Amino acid sequence: FRGGALLTAPNGPGYHIMLPFITTFRSVQTTLQTDEIKNVPCGTSGGVMIYFDRIEVVNMLVPTAVVDIVRNYTADYDKTLIFNKIHHELNQFCSVHTLQEVYIELFDIIDENLKLALQKDLIAMAPGLTIQAVRVTKPKIPEAIRRNFELMEAEKTRLLITAQTQKVVEKEAETERKKAIIEAQKLAQVAEINFRQKVMEKETEKKISEIEDSAFLARERARADAEFYTAEKFAEANRLKLTPEYIELMKYQAIAANSKVYFGQDIPNMFVDNSGPQGRTQDEDDSGSLDLLDSLGKVKKHKRAQRSKSDSLD
Q1: Which of 3, 241, 272, 273 is the most exposed place for a label (fewest CB within 10 A)?
Q2: Phi, psi of 272 (to 5 degrees)
Q3: Contact indicator for 81, 107 with CB cutoff of 8 Å
Q4: β-sheet bridge partners, residue 23
Q5: Residue 14 — left, alpha, or beta (φ > 0 → left; ψ -120 to 50 → alpha)?
Q6: Helix, strand, or coil here: 19?
Q7: Model confidence over 208-220: pLDDT tens digits?
């Protein structure tokens, strides 16, 4: 200031000449600074008076806007543009909200609302002054209400602890259920594998049995075929041997093997050959009968000689 009039440009840092009693100066900070507003009263919509112990406003003034802002709002521009505005906006906010909202529910948005409201007015009233941040401390409330809030918070905390405990129990139960499901699935898979293994074993046994049955059936069929062939050939051989001469031979062999000897003038009819030719004479029949008796006598003598020999050996 010179002679009480504001100069047109600010002086920067360094040495400057000042005329006593004519030239005066005021320091204006153009870097980032923090203004504190303390003990700000606020009345809620319910009529409860609360106090904000400290509100901090971080702001910065650009050097090119210093002259205009000082000319319009003096060097103590922050009182007009920031301090008074904070009081006004905070009371506007508290007047439309309850103590519960101001103290708990909407407390987290108070600083952002104050910043937006200040910046909106500063853009129109003081270009070059910007608000960087607003920090609001917890307000002071009457002691009785504060104790009620503390009790309420304690109940909420206990409720949250109970809810968290319940979640933990539910989570543990869910974990146990999942473990049981996994264990059951594992047992089911093992049982299914064992079942498939048994089925495969049974199918293998079935195939082996079928192979063995087929082999046995083939062997039996081959043996039956062989027996049938043998019987057929034997029957064919017997049929070829079935001649009158062979029958006569077999008859005399059977008579020779018989241990009974008949004595007398008449021979039983069984020794008479009725199947011979009709043209045989009586002499031929008698001769045959004598030959037969002679043969039977020789067989009898031979058996007696063998019996005597065995008795002498004894």
Answers
A1: 3
A2: -90, 130
A3: no
A4: 2
A5: left
A6: coil
A7: 988 988 898 888 8
- What is the arithmetic mean of pLDDT over 236-250? 78
Q: In whole angstroms, give the CA distance from residue 104 to residue 101.
A: 5
Write the DSSP string, 214-275. HHHHHHHHHHHHHHHHHHHHHHHHHHHH--HHHHHHHHHHHHHH------SS---GGGS--S
pTM beyond 0.70: the answer is no
Amino acid (one-letter) located at 269: N
For 290-306, b where at least 16 C-beta lie within 10 A, e where not — what string?
Answer: eebeeebeebeeeeeee
Q: What would the DSSP string read from start to end of 88-111?
A: HHHHHHHHTS-HHIIIIISGGGHH
Amino acid at 223: R
Tokens of 2: 């010179």
- Give the phi and the psi of residue 4 in degrees, each rounded to 5: 85, -5
Q: Which helix (H) or strand (E) holds 126?
A: none
Distances in whole angstroms, Cα of residue 84 to Cα of each of 79, 244, 286, 298 = 6, 160, 177, 170
Q: Between 84-95 and 110-125, two packed helices, what is the crossing angle to 10 degrees?
A: 130
Residue 36 forms beta bridges with which residues?
56
118, 131, 135, 117: which is closest to 61 by C-alpha? 131
pLDDT of residue 236: 83
pLDDT, tens only, 72-89: 777 777 888 888 888 888
